[in-house]
């Protein structure tokens, strides 16, 4: 058990240790001296929001985010209404867990559709319906631009600039953005957009970009240091923009998932200090 | 043998039928009524530039581009000097083949490097050395922004906007850009950048974006209609920007490569008329 003060703003995104339940992940964070946790809805649902909230509070952790809402691109009315209802539930859950930050992955093109502009417009329309509901509950919708390789099937929101264009139509308390190093590191415009984001930055997530990408490109997220990203400039830019929140480590990676989670947390803490906090 | 006037500005990029020699590809284009060909250096080298140029000229085809120069990101002096020498040879070959357009894939991060800004700067520096040499020989360096998923290992040039920022430091006759639907379709800023590109557009390439991406993501390029891209808006935008050149079909795809090349050309011509020229 460590209480290294450098880990005070480090957060474990629960998907990084996806075999752990909420209780196990909370206990793991305490053992590793990590101050916050990013929860996912599915494992939270297994025990219910009140029980999850109590576990986290009793352990003295913060909930840095809830993953995730979104998937707002459906063209037919019924699917759209269902998505909006599900997002309202996700907002309620975030409020119940005591986190301000609900991460939204906006969704890709509907099956068979090539209407990218239409899908993007439907995201904007859905936000207009959800943002006030979120704001009234003290929750901020955190728009996550995903790497452009996921544009067709996961998220038609592809750059931080595009996320800010959307977010700026709403009060800063209602709609923010996620800066995830994996998704934005390649963007030649990212420095200008992080500065522009300022108080819109609702979450800062780190993990590395691996090559060659694995057969399932969703799993190309690696431990910091295993890939191509230079983290300190991005961390400094986010801080210079005014962000003072947690740094969440979110890794989707078959090898990481096969490793003993306590070892994953130890490596994660070590790499965070060495490669993210470094100047 | 057809002389469908709608195919007059269609070009076969040689990689689409990579098992064909230059002679076979030229003959295939003539059989299919396709007016132009985009050549690759390696098959051209098998017979030499003069022989390749004669084959194309005797068949009455245009050379829409030569692929490719680039790979300009090496940090050490020796590798850098070799890359510049190789690019000068590529420029000479383009001139010898009678094409104005030499496509450049700029290269990724050097092995082990995380200095993305440095790699990008070295591309700009190399262009300054190569552009006048190209201009004197009537060849234009065509900067190809590649999809951001190739940023680490193929091309640190990731958006059309970034390519134009680089190109605009040089006369329009010396440095242009490639608009390849596969690489740019996701970009929310692509419409503004195509309009900005104007006379800088040196090549328009089409192919589709497939999901799921194959294990080798370089082979995720599909026949038009097999993926997610809506082609006519991009074709219209390029034309509205003033581009009057050929539309080159460049597909890297294991299934396409396993198909009888004459059938590939027939499908390509059909899909081009149906899905690219359509209004």
From TrEMBL, chains A, B:
InterPro entries reported for this sequence: IolE/XylAMocC-like, Xyl_isomerase-like_sf, Xyl_isomerase-like_TIM-brl
Chain ranges passing through the membrane: none
Molecular functions per Gene Ontology: isomerase activity
Record keyword Transmembrane present: no
Keyword Ribonucleoprotein annotated: no
UniProt entry keywords in alphabetical sequence: Isomerase
Domain Xylose isomerase-like TIM barrel as annotated: residue spans: 29-260
Name of this protein: Sugar phosphate isomerase/epimerase
Source organism of this protein record: Micromonospora humi
